[in-house]
């Protein structure tokens, strides 16, 4: 999946829940992102973290690990049960998600997907609503193709903060590129704070797992030092 | 087990395949402990243990109480190891889980029932007054093997603790406040330290000091507590898959060498704490000297 690099983003200040932020509300075109809420004429924060601005958009960034599903996000889930015509999937949200048997490429009533409890899948959030269980689908709705969604074979799952997953996906952190120069591996990044990773040998998988785990707290130059010191 | 913490089939298979090749997820050998860091102080009897990402805090406190009527010449030692949702997601506070019962039983067997602390020395006046020592163990973070970490924390806290000095002249009992007379350490007979083994598949695969992921897929476990006299204080194998005799003997020998390593770490921590205390005392003396000079 191609993702463009983010445009220039600047940290404005540190905010706590309840803080009022003074932005020019009258200027049209200001977009409030996650963590900000408009109450009448004032804008207040609902999360603790950095207030970040990119162009006309403001939002709050922090290290939270708790996932709140949003439509069209890609997630890594684990099958936790089977219901009538669907699978129950644990994506780390408050409620287990639903993955209907028909939500796969080329699925028909006769042709069921072959997934078991405990399997890992890469899926897209089709429906996310705070009053309902989230729903997933394993195909791209625009062209009905699987495009990488579906069962993930082997490998390991790393649980991290949501922000780190964003940084990996948009390549804001160079760790994947740097590590890719040393050994071959593949990753499926879920926006729910889970990253599936796999490589050719168990030793390499455990190496990638530990490197990605450590790199969450490192900046790009420290990542470079980490990769340079690796014994593959 | 909370749904979020359950492992996927991929993870389970990877860990088992890794163990078959002698590889653990964090790069350790199968008989390696994680990095152990023990911090004692600043108060006497406070010990914080970090075993990898597992964090345990033990605090020892004392009070004067009446001895139990059936043991009039002994003091009282109480170990409290309540699990809390802080480290254990999905735990219902108030109702002791199976794990909690196991942790508290093992620690009691190792420390209390094996008489690691001299409780007779805690008696002040027979039948009337005795020291009641409380060891409170708090679990701050759980990444597997809380029993070993809790035992290290409790033992190091008890070794570091000082109680107020007492003088008994006939009927007169004087408990000296700590600012008037130096507090006195507890009399420790021996220091038992636990080593946990986790077993997988049909008992052929095993590891020392399992992490949380390894604990979740283990088929059996065994806890051996050995003291500084090389005596086995506790050997606990509660359920799980059956083990061969030679495995148990091999594990006990390995446990003995691991316990030596842990004991060295505890001695280092106690020495460090004493050094820090001495330095603080010297700085205080210097400060007072300068103050009086001017």
From TrEMBL, chain A:
GO MF, one example: RNA binding
Keywords: Cytoplasm, Exosome, Nucleus, RNA-binding, rRNA processing
Record keyword Amino-acid biosynthesis present: no
GO cellular component: cytoplasmic exosome (RNase complex); nuclear exosome (RNase complex); nucleolus
Keyword Lipoprotein among UniProt keywords: no
Gene3D superfamilies: 2.40.50.100, K Homology domain, type 1, Nucleic acid-binding proteins
UniProt subcellular location: Cytoplasm; Nucleus, Nucleolus
One Gene Ontology term from the biological process aspect of the record: U4 snRNA 3'-end processing
Main location, first listed in the record: cytoplasm
PANTHER family: EXOSOME COMPLEX COMPONENT RRP40, PNAS-3 RELATED
Family of this protein: Belongs to the RRP40 family.
Protein's name according to its UniProt entry: Ribosomal RNA-processing protein 40
Record lineage: Eukaryota, Fungi, Fungi incertae sedis, Mucoromycota, Glomeromycotina
From TrEMBL, chain B:
Subcellular location: Cytoplasm; Nucleus, Nucleolus
One cellular component (GO) term of this entry: nucleolus
Keywords, in A-Z order: Cytoplasm, Exosome, Nucleus, Ribonucleoprotein, Ribosomal protein, RNA-binding, rRNA processing
Main localization category: cytoplasm
Residue intervals of the Exoribonuclease phosphorolytic domain: 33-164, 190-257
Record-linked InterPro entries: ExoRNase_PH_dom1, ExoRNase_PH_dom2, ExoRNase_PH_dom2_sf, Exosome_comp_Rrp42_subfam, PNPase/RNase_PH_dom_sf, Ribosomal_Su5_D2-typ_SF, Rrp45
A Pfam family reported for this protein in Swiss-Prot or TrEMBL: RNase_PH_C
CDD domains tied to this protein: RNase_PH_RRP45
GO biological process, one term: U5 snRNA 3'-end processing
Transmembrane regions listed in the UniProt entry: none
Molecular-function GO terms, alphabetical: mRNA 3'-UTR AU-rich region binding
Domain of life: Eukaryota
Protein family (similarity comment): Belongs to the RNase PH family.
Descriptive protein name: Exosome complex component RRP45
């Amino acid at each position: 999946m191609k993702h463009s690099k983010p445009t220039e983003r600047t940290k404005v200040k540190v905010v706590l829940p309840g803080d009022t932020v003074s932005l020019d509300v009258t200027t049209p075109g200001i977009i409030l992102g996650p963590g900000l809420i408009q109450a009448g004429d004032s804008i207040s924060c609902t999360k603790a973290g950095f207030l970040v601005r990119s162009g006309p958009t403001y939002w709050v960034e922090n290290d939270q690990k708790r996932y709140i599903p949003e439509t069209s996000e890609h997630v890594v889930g684990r099958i936790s049960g089977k219901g009538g015509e669907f699978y129950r999937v644990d994506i780390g949200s408050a409620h287990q998600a639903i993955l209907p048997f028909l939500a796969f490429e080329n699925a028909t009533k006769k042709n069921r997907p072959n997934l078991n409890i405990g399997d890992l899948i890469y899926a897209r959030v089709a429906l996310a609503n705070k009053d309902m269980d989230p729903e997933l689908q394993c195909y791209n709705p625009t062209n009905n193709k699987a495009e990488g969604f579906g069962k993930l074979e082997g490998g390991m799952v790393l649980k991290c903060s949501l922000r780190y997953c964003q940084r990996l996906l948009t390549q804001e952190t160079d760790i994947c590129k740097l590590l890719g120069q040393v050994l071959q591996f593949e990753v499926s990044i879920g926006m729910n704070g889970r990253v599936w990773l796999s490589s050719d040998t168990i030793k390499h998988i455990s190496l990638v797992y530990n490197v990605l785990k450590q790199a969450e707290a490192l900046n790009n130059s420290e990542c470079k030092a980490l990769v340079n010191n690796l014994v593959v | 087990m909370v749904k979020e913490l359950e492992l996927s089939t991929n993870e389970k298979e990877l860990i088992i395949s890794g163990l078959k090749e002698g590889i653990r997820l964090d790069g350790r050998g199968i008989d390696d402990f994680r990095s152990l860091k023990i911090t004692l102080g600043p108060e006497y009897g406070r010990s914080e243990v970090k075993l990898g990402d597992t964090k345990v805090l033990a605090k020892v406190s004392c009070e004067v109480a009446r001895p139990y009527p059936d043991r009039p010449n002994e003091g009282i030692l109480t170990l409290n190891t309540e699990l809390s949702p802080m480290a254990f997601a999905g735990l219902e506070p108030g109702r002791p889980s199976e794990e909690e019962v196991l942790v508290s039983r093992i620690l009691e067997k190792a420390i209390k029932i094996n008489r690691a602390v001299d409780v007779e020395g805690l008696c002040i006046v027979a039948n009337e007054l005795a020291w009641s020592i409380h060891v409170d163990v708090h679990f701050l973070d759980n990444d597997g093997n809380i029993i070993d970490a809790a035992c290290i924390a409790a033992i190091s806290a008890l070794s570091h603790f000082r109680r107020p000095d007492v003088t008994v002249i006939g009927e007169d009992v004087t408990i000296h406040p700590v600012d008037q007379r130096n507090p006195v350490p507890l009399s420790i007979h021996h220091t038992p330290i636990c080593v946990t083994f986790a077993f997988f598949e049909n008992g052929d695969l095993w590891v020392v000091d399992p992490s949380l992921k390894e604990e979740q897929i283990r088929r059996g476990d065994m806890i051996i507590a050995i003291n500084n006299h090389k005596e086995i204080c506790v050997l606990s194998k509660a359920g799980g898959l059956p083990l061969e005799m030679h495995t148990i003997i091999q594990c006990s020998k390995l446990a003995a060498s691991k316990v030596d390593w842990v004991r060295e770490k505890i001695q280092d921590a106690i020495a460090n704490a004493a050094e820090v205390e001495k330095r603080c005392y010297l700085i205080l003396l210097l400060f007072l000297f300068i103050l009086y000079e001017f």
